[in-house]
Amino acid sequence: MATFNVPTRDEVSENNQVIFDNLQKGLGFVPNLYATYTYSDTALGDYLALQNRKSSLKAKEREIINLVVSQVNECAYCLAAHTALGKMNGFSDEQILELRTGEASFDTKFDALAKFVKDITINRSKPSSAVVDNLLAAGYNKENLVDIIVVIGDKIISNFIHGATQIPVDFPAAPALEEAPV
Predict the structure, then answer these.
(1) Looking at the structure, do residues 87 and 161 belong to the same domain, yes or no?
(2) What are phi and psi of 91, to 5 degrees?
(3) Which range of residues forms the domain containing residue 33?
(4) Tens digit of each residue's pLDDT (9 = 90 or more) over 69-106
(5) Do 83 and 141 fall within a single domain?
(6) Is the overall model pTM greater than 0.90, yes or no?
């Protein structure tokens, strides 16, 4: 398999250098996955616009989607990043591990969301009618459904970029699900 180095600021276009500078100011570093987007002159800016778009979903709901999709796609980078972000958004270690399985026994609305996301991701865009009905019965609406799918698409893009490039993970590794407490 081809080797992909993580582009440095000096190796990217002027447009991407500006984005690197903004990420450095805002996050304190440029995550390796974001840097990898800069193999394209426009992909990082496009991706950040998608990721930061206005949404009907709360931050916790977006993290549920990110964790479930990344687990289904077995993306070590995104699991590591979203485990850290999940904690920052108030989820416990145990809740994060459970969310990654596609369930949330601690919250019925989050459970419906996690189950929908797992089902639609595993079934490649074709969820069962039962999980769609359960999602809507749990309090999500059609606007939320569309926003959920947009976040799924966002995460699949990152999962695929990491899967193809295997750039180094620069977040603490997410624990394996087998390490989940019983």
Answers:
(1) yes
(2) -85, 145
(3) 9-51
(4) 999 999 999 999 999 999 999 999 999 999 999 999 99
(5) yes
(6) yes
